[in-house]
Design a protein that fits this description.
Length: 188
């Protein structure tokens, strides 16, 4: 079976055959895809917490309440739900930050949360609890089984499109409507 190139800095789009799973109509940003496996963050499944409520949980006083006022925290995936991951742009210099591509970074440090509370963090953020993970080769097998479509990174999809529209918009970038999708793979 032929293996796909690295999917880092791409999006996965859930296919209709995942409707009975945790990943129903999800879009996932792939943070890492290497010889150890794949790690991604769901960018369109909302948690019941908002960003200000999360900051309050850490006893951080929000000095700029208009920042992120109604922004929901997202469910990044079913793994490690008590850990937070923040995708943001620009990258900046945070304590525990992983620079990605296109001036995007993922940060997991409290100094970023403090910057969010005091209004000095970047405006473009996506806050997730938990992540999605696959063992080496597992995601490639799922793509071959027609569980996922892939598209390159798109800043607007990550930061600007409303969460409830991201799946549809992601499909539209491929010229696909949900009604035209089949659950059958197009190969043997």
């Amino acid at each position: 079976m032929e293996h796909l190139n690295s999917l880092e800095h791409h999006f996965l789009i859930a296919m209709p055959n995942l409707t009975e799973s945790w990943f129903d109509k999800t879009v996932i940003y792939i943070v890492e895809d290497n010889e150890h496996g794949t790690m991604g963050l769901v960018i369109n499944l909302e948690h019941n917490l908002t960003v200000p409520e999360l900051l309050d949980h850490f006893e951080l006083t929000v000095e700029a309440p208009e920042n992120y006022a109604d922004q929901p925290v997202l469910m990044g995936g079913p793994v490690d739900l008590e850990h937070g991951f923040i995708l943001h742009e620009p990258q900046g210099t945070w304590q525990k930050s992983l620079p990605l591509r296109d001036n995007l970074a993922m940060t997991v440090s409290e100094d970023f949360l403090k910057a969010m509370a005091d209004g000095t963090a970047p405006e473009k953020i996506v806050v997730c609890l938990g992540f999605s993970g696959w063992e080496k080769g597992q995601l490639n097998d799922e793509i071959q089984a027609n569980n996922w479509l892939t598209i390159p990174y798109n800043e607007a999809l990550l930061f600007d499109v409303p969460n409830d529209q991201k799946w549809q918009v992601a499909l539209n970038t491929l010229g696909i409507s949900p009604e035209s999708l089949s659950m059958d793979a197009g190969h043997d």
